[in-house]
Model the fold of this input.
Amino acid sequence: MSSHAHETAEEFIPYIVNPREDTGLYNAKFGIWLFLASEVMLFGSLFSAYILLRVGSFSWPVQSEIQNVGIGALNSVVLLSSSIFFIRAWVALKADDVAKYKKFMALVILFAFIFLFFKGVEYYQHFSHHEYPKTSVFLGLYFLMTGLHALHIIGGILVNSFYMGPGMKIRSINKQWFINRVEVAGLYWHFVDLVWIFLFSTLYLL
Amino acid sequence: MEHDANRSEFKRDILIYVLIILMTGLIVFISHLRLHVLGIFLIVPIACTEAAILAYYFMHLMTKKKTVHLILLLTVIVFINLLFWPAWDIVYSPRTPSEFTAF
Done:
């Protein structure tokens, strides 16, 4: 990357490539951590509601009997694999290997779709047993929390697809700017994986 | 030099990946033992450890600036409050009709 391109990109918006002196972070990274903090509070409030409703109830179903633990565990592996592929994609991008970056990014997106497919299978199984959100407090929370998580997966698919396709135009303006953008998308993707670890253990195993 | 660093990072990431999968297998196994309350006390810390390892290595929290740690600390404080205040309310709220009358 030439220093000229570096300066040109920073002329329009400061700190998109270089870190700020006060925070030590570039804009997008500071922004994503604030966003992730708000996401922790969003999911945190739902986990809080789950714990309090469970503790406050007289009876609670045996979750592992209602849930398909096998599919849930498989989905954990699928999402974790997609996280590893994202790291490989980012490393490839830093090494200027665009073909490899696109290959790994495509795998990330593919595994995200596999996750959604298995989630759909689970939902189908519940519906075929006449288990709906209105059936019980637990199922209401289950559909709400996993549904919200699935929406985050869909959001991630859209962002990752953008950075695999039209978003790559940023790279022609400034390579480091694009690498930073992909890193930020990666942080979001790992966070979605992290939330699933808690969802799986809370809604399937406890 | 950079290539070697990437290789060792890749090896480390694969190790973390395998470790998290093994831990997931472990919590599934524990849940099958039907240990009830003891199961909760085993599964929750293991799941928290899994999440912490993921955040530490994959989200590079180990090398993050103080700003990020501060943001996360504030978030944890808010989350603990989210749990504590309703819990406090539930503990001191009446549950049965007689308790309501007394209340």
User: Anything to note?
Assistant: Chain B has a mean pLDDT of 84.
